[in-house]
Amino acid sequence: MTQRMLSIIIVGARGRMGTALIREVMDSEDMTLGACVDRSGGPGIGQDAGRLAGGPDIGVLVTDELRPRRGSVVVDFSLPNATEARIRACVEQGIPLIIGTTGLSEEDDKLLVEAGQSIPIVYAANFSVGVTLLLQLAGVAAAALGPDWEAELFELHHRFKRDAPSGTALRIGQAVADATGRKFSEAVMTDRASLRRAREKQEIGVFGLRGGDSPGEHTLMFLGEGERIELTHRAGDRAIFARGALRAARWAASQPPGLYDMVDVLGLRE
Ligand code: NAD
């Protein structure tokens, strides 16, 4: 059998997601670990990727320089501090990019759209298959229920998460706003403490809780007169995001340039 192995370059290799990705690549039959990158001057540099992921040495040492190579896909789950440089490096070499890092700036978002003209990029605030479906269900439910039902959502993540509310929660808010003809910037409300007034009809409350070790829980409520619908997704293990991101990497390797998300990867785009 001469199956071509897909080479994966992991950015943020020493992190919680990076090490989950290393384990998934090592366990796969169609992927190899091309390189592992982490923050310059950080404790991961020079360490063996296998050992970082809790296994034996595999001879791939973590470096601080991203050098995308043909035939590989870059998978970035790090911090948004140098996203621009990483996107530009992939564009220069024509390498597909999977980006799971959340909390990107507006400039980064614009650069992603531009970069999507020349390389395939899959960018998702949440690579879980279940959450991708939740996003779809949120839009369907919001459109079907109409303006008399109020939508509110909350999320819970582990104590180390830096951005709040989560990128996923904001995406769910966006799905509800889009499905009901509301503008995200006007409808989504992430802080009510200073308002001192009752909620307005068009608001979509989006709130983050932090603590413990949960990899992520999201609950969207539709609140009607005398009844309530709750849609909840609970991630039990961050391996689900790693598996989703690698599914996206396999898919992106044979796609034309474009800015995609998990809806495209799962073939759910209408
Ligand atoms: P973490 O803090 O455990 O790991 C981040 C890693 O990135 C660290 O090893 C850090 O040294 C490294 N890093 C920081 N700056 C870097 C740089 N300039 N170049 C290379 N590496 C750099 O965080 P985590 O829990 O693994 O999460 C990483 C990111 O992924 C966060 O933005 C998080 O919100 C996001 N995330 C996304 C999904 C999703 O499905 N999209 C799921 C989980 C986490």
Radius of gyration using CA atoms only: 19 Å
Number of strands: 12
Identify low-pLDDT runs: none
Distinct small molecules bound, one entry per kind: nicotinamide-adenine-dinucleotide
Largest sheet: 7 strands, parallel
CATH fold assignment of the largest domain = Rossmann fold
- The CATH class of the largest domain turns out to be Alpha Beta
Secondary-structure element order, N to C:
EHEHEEHEHEHEHHEEEEHEH
Physical arrangement of strands within the biggest beta sheet = 3-2-1-4-5-6-12
State the CATH architecture of the largest domain.
Answer: 3-Layer(aba) Sandwich
> Structural class of the helices, strands and pairings?
alpha/beta
| Average pLDDT number | 95
Whole-number tally of structural domains:
2
Cα separation of the termini: 36 Å
Q: Roughly what fraction of the amino acids lie in strands?
A: 15-25%
Number of helices: 9
The CATH homologous superfamily of the largest domain is named NAD(P)-binding Rossmann-like Domain
